[in-house]
TrEMBL record:
GO terms for molecular function: dipeptide transmembrane transporter activity. Keywords: Cell membrane, Membrane, Transmembrane, Transmembrane helix, Transport. It comes from Kytococcus aerolatus. The lineage of its organism: Bacteria, Bacillati, Actinomycetota, Actinomycetes, Micrococcales. The keyword Cell membrane applies. This is Peptide/nickel transport system permease protein. The keyword Transport applies. The chain crosses the membrane at residues 99-122, 134-161, 181-200, 235-257, 285-307. Pfam families: BPD_transp_1, BPD_transp_1_N.
């Protein structure tokens, strides 16, 4: 197990380095001169050249890449080309907002998907299982932003129960924070809950057909107790894979949801940076998102070993 974790950690580090090189290279071939964008199209060539020198754009790209990489280790990411604001504090502030949104949405998705998926499996031959299966299929087809707009139309506009957007700092306004978090978190969770419920259903059906569950049932245990006592751990392995994919999907989906609900998260920061052509800020935000995806995949591998130590033994 230790050997597997060490190898996966090494793969994570190498993947992060490769991803940083790819992100940096892509930003270098994007058309447009950041200095000219910052000064405007009517700026003189002398002014553009001077600003390029201030930005360090006149240095060779390997030097700029190493400086950028070193900045991640020292948390000194410099300033945006257009806004001239420090990038690191912006990322920390926006990332904390996105974490609240994605974390709450994932928790809601799990609380909904696990019992519903298990019920779909245990009652798959009944009308309850068929109806729940049909609802989950419909939920998978609805985009998160459309779910968000429908929730706004019903609960914010028509009923007036919750605000349609905005954000409050949890420490300053806990009640306002929860009210403003509810709709975006639910809209982000619904689609992923439908997907997770389908995988939970399939995993439970597969486990319920195993010999050790049949033995437990033969000893008099009801299906629910047999599943809880003997089946959950085995059913969790394939679900964890989808859980990791759902978390990365939520990170990407948060970009759109934050715009729909006017939430100042990483997604909104990325969209604003793209609109302003602030390439160094785009580069840093994209790197954060890529790093999060890689770290999630790493944590999924760690959960594999914790859930089923035999996986580590086979590595």
């Amino acid at each position: 197990m230790i050997l597997r974790l060490a190898s996966r950690t090494a793969v994570l580090v190498l993947s992060l380095l490769a991803a940083s090189l790819i992100v940096f290279a892509v930003m270098q071939v994007v058309p447009g001169d950041p200095a000219r964008v910052a000064l405007g199209m009517n700026a003189s060539e002398e002014s553009v050249a001077r600003l390029r020198s201030e930005f360090g754009l006149d240095r060779p790209w390997p030097v700029r890449y190493l400086d950028w990489l070193a900045g991640w280790f020292t948390l000194d990411l410099g300033r945006g080309y257009v806004s001239q604001a420090e990038i690191a504090p912006q990322l920390v502030d926006r990332f904390s907002v996105t974490l609240w949104l994605v974390g709450t949405a994932m928790l809601l998705a799990l609380l909904l998907a696990v019992p519903v998926g298990a019920l779909m499996a245990l009652r798959h031959r009944s009308s309850v299982g068929v109806v729940l299966s049909a609802v989950s299929q419909l939920g998978m087809a609805v985009p998160a932003f459309l779910a968000g707009m429908l929730l706004i139309a019903v609960f914010a506009v028509r009923l007036g129960w919750l605000p349609s957007g905005g954000w409050s700092v949890p420490a300053e306004d806990p009640v306002g924070f929860l009210r403003k978090l509810a709709l975006p978190a639910i809209s982000l969770a619904l689609v992923q809950a439908a997907i997770l419920a389908r995988y939970v259903r399939n995993a439970v059906l597969e486990v319920m057909d195993t010999d050790f569950i049949r033995t437990a049932r033969a000893k008099g245990l009801p299906r629910w107790k047999a599943l809880v006592r003997h089946g959950w751990r085995n059913a969790a392995v394939p679900v964890v894979t989808v859980l990791g994919l759902s978390l990365t999907s939520m990170l990407v989906g948060a970009v759109v949801i934050e715009r729909v609900f006017v939430i100042p998260g990483v997604g909104s920061l990325l969209v604003d940076a793209v609109a302003q052509r602030d390439l160094v800020l785009v580069q840093d935000v994209v790197m954060v998102l890529v790093a999060l995806v890689l770290v999630v995949n790493f944590l999924v591998d760690v959960l594999y070993v914790l859930i089923d130590p035999r996986i580590g033994g086979r590595a």
